[in-house]
Amino acid sequence: MEIKKIQGAIEAILFSSGDPVSIDRIADALELDKPTVLKIVKNLMDEFNREEAGIRIVQLDEQFQMCSNPQYTPFVRRILDMRRNTPLSQASMEVLAIVAYNQPVTKAFIEQIRGVDCSGVLGSLTAKGLIEERGRLELPGRPLLYGTTPSFLRCLNVSSLSELPPLEKTQQPEEEENDLKNVSAG
Amino acid sequence: MEIKKIQGAIEAILFSSGDPVSIDRIADALELDKPTVLKIVKNLMDEFNREEAGIRIVQLDEQFQMCSNPQYTPFVRRILDMRRNTPLSQASMEVLAIVAYNQPVTKAFIEQIRGVDCSGVLGSLTAKGLIEERGRLELPGRPLLYGTTPSFLRCLNVSSLSELPPLEKTQQPEEEENDLKNVSAG
Amino acid sequence: MEKLSYKLPVFEGPLDLLLYLIRKNKLDICDIQISELLDQYMEQINAMKEEDMDVASEFLEMAARLVYMKTVSLLPKHEEGEKLRQELSGQLLEYQECKRIAELMAERLNYDIFVREAAEIEFDQTYRRHHTPMEIYNAYYMAVGHGKRFIPPSPEVFSNIVTHKIVSVSSRIIHVLRRLYRTNEVRYKELFADKTDKSDLIATFLAVLELVKGKRVQINGEKGNATVKLICGGVKKWRLKKYKAQ
Where is this region: Disordered (chains A, B) (predicted)? Predict the structure, then answer.
């Protein structure tokens, strides 16, 4: 393999791994001897670690890792921050609404209504602090139950769930269903 | 900010974000105008995307993302100890093709073309991040609509849907076909 | 979950099979000879007979459609038959194109490019935008639709399969003893009066047996008139000491 390709391969490895990678493992993967790899990595570091570079390669003992140049952290933070503040997707809104009106509910219940998997959405709503886990249902598999948080009320600017617009009669889970839900949740 | 620093910041942003980032967001974060940012990103792409490079910058519609150069995939996989992604099944490819060329599209429409149920396939394509929900169609039952994601473009190595292989002339969506889309979606 | 039943030898569905037959027999997709196609199709269906019923149903649906088309084509008026044939041709052309594109895309699809996870910067991810309650209400209707069609079956439907309440015998022993401390003697039937659940009934019955075995109670009479009597009468002290906590 020519030098340029080996460099490229190491770049790709460090980029994709995220975690620090030891020189031994790189040597193994490329089927090269350790001193050669070490020399190429060092060259690569010289190429990368210019003062203004966005990506740096750092050495940690015998390991190497790619990371962003700390001087740009404020910008990175802004970008990631903007991502966090994007409005809820429609899928998120729907899941939130189902949780709000039926809590505590299981993932299976929500998926049955929406007809599609919603693990990702539940995760992001939890991270955003709009819903939270509410124990488990005493059924096989002990599924998690979800309910809305005080943050959710703040987000809607209401002081209690009772201020949500009431559902039309036909949309309300039936009495018996509620009873059962409570019984089985106990 | 000097050019070199802006480049570095964009590098750092793309590296740290992981996901595709839109030119608007970058412009916002750097407090620069969009054309300037676009020009710098394009320069950066020229710098990065040499044949032997380990890291590439790809354009996906209006977004940009850093990813590894596929030619080094075997090495990266050795390091990450990952098995090869199983190639998508024929069913998945067909569904993906229908979604790509007709998006946003309902499950009913896809099933009409393929003549078989495709709930499972839609679920797995969504889980793989190749397609995503795109709201609902305002028809009875409010069926979900699906479209392709930026990841889909990346995996196909194109930067926009317009680069997909063209449909054969006779198959270009005709009036009646469009009608059918709406009817069958019901 | 992806239905495994789709792993039929070669065909993704009835349309796939039809395209295969058309190609194999060098038929013209735009001018299908229905009776010829139907015979071949049925041949294949018979060959696949041992396959999963679920798959077969989709293939059978197409068989029925072909049979119908054949019937209609025998009528003196040809308009409907012609219309059905064009419809099928159109569908086949469309599916053929879909397959072609899928193949092209499969060649180009590289599902093995690596991207990074977002950098782990500690953020307070709390959602800070605001919405109105009406948005939540509307989203609910979006998800549920207006009919009851989409409301999931009540948990009751599953209760037989998934819930089994376990009632401990010891809790029923306490229950029986409590009843007896008040009255010293109680009709056997009454012990079961407050419960209808099967596991409650069984646990109560076992509790009585345990108490008989432990010589704490005695059963007199038979059938409906049987009574259960506490043996060490005047057990007020028991109640106070041992079972107070319960």
Answer: 164-186
Whether the link from the prior residue into A104 is cis, omega within 30° of 0, is yes
B101 and B67 share one domain: no
Which pLDDT value is given to residue B175? 41
C118-142 average pLDDT score: 78
Please calculate the CA angle C136-C139-C144 and round it to the nearest 5 degrees: 125
From the CA of C80, how many Å to the nearest CA of chain B?
A: 18
Beta carbons of C2 and B116 less than 8 Å apart: no
Asked if residue A146 lies in contact with residue A107, where contact means CB atoms within 8 angstroms, the answer is: yes
Domain count, chain A: 2
Least confident of B50-64, B137-151, C104-118: C104-118
Chain B interface test: which of C62, C98, C110 (most B C-beta within 10 Å): C98
Q: Which domain holds residue A124?
A: 90-163
Residues of chain A with Cβ-Cβ distance to C135 below 8 Å are 93
Give the model confidence (pLDDT) of B152-168 as tens digits. 999 888 889 998 888 87
Percent of chain B with pLDDT over 90: 51
Using only C-alpha atoms, what is the Rg of chain C?
A: 36
Task: Give yes or no: residues C103 and C18 share one domain.
Answer: yes
Please tell me the distance in Å from C94's CA to the nearest CA on chain B: 7
Neighbours of chain A (3+ CB pairs under 8 A): B, C
CA distances (Å), origin B27, targets B5, B22, B41: 14, 9, 11
List pLDDT tens digits, range B10-22.
Answer: 999 999 998 899 9
pLDDT category at B129 given cuts 50, 70, 90 is: confident
Reply yes or no on whether the pLDDT at C2 is more than 70.
no
Q: What is chain B's mean pLDDT, rounded?
A: 85
Asked whether residue C134 is domain-assigned, the answer is no
Summarize pLDDT for A69-109 with one digit per residue, the tens: 999 999 998 888 877 778 888 889 999 999 999 989 999 99
- Give the pLDDT confidence score for residue B26 in this predicted structure: 93
CATH number at residue A62: 1.10.10.10
**Domain stops at, among B52, B75, B98:** B75
Residues of chain B numbered 56-95 and touching chain C (CB < 8 Å): 65-68, 70, 73, 76-77, 80, 84-85, 87-91, 93-94
A70 Rama sector, left if φ>0, alpha if ψ -120 to 50, beta otherwise: alpha
Contacts B67 to C, Cβ<8 Å: 113-115
The answer to whether the CB atoms of B18 and C99 lie below 8 A apart is no
Numbered residues of chain C with Cβ closer than 8 Å to any chain B Cβ: 1-3, 6, 12-16, 58, 62, 91, 93-95, 97-106, 108-119, 121, 142, 145, 147, 149-150
ipTM over the 0.90 cut-off: no
